[in-house]
Amino acid sequence: MIRKSLCFIVFVCGLCACQSMPSEVALEHTVADYIEVYQERKNFERLLSFYAPSAQLEDMIYGHFATDRNAIAKFYDWPNSKLTVLEGKPLFTVEQKVVDPLQNIAFFSGVFHRFSYFGEELGPWRFLIKLQFDKQGKIIHQQDWINYTPRSLITEGKNLNTPFLVDDKKGK
Asked: How far is 35 from 46, CA to CA, in rounded Å?
């Protein structure tokens, strides 16, 4: 009887844990969908739908910190940016991807292909992106490490290495 009760408790706790976090399959699917939408760079509203309203985005090299979905939309600004991917490739290729459903986190790395941005040819750029998800499978924090070139694009970037994202004028 004790054994059956213990098995029942373990089963119920397992069900509760599964309901409180996205399943491994669901999180894998969300990350794959996010990557596809980002690569195609056509459906801006769909891209924004992956983010929780209070999501944050840190671009560690550029030095930009967005504090909610509206700030993220303003940062990306797909509708107004004049970006054309060259060579008939997607915007980027993912070379490695790790999804950890226990921590609701995903990392992916790869290469942004050559593209034209407001008439200036840029890329290729190597990158690493970290995504943290909430219990509903929405992105709550994104951290980008993109190897921007030319360096003149980022000379005025803020130093996001300072604790708690305090704007440290000396730390530029």
From this structure: 11
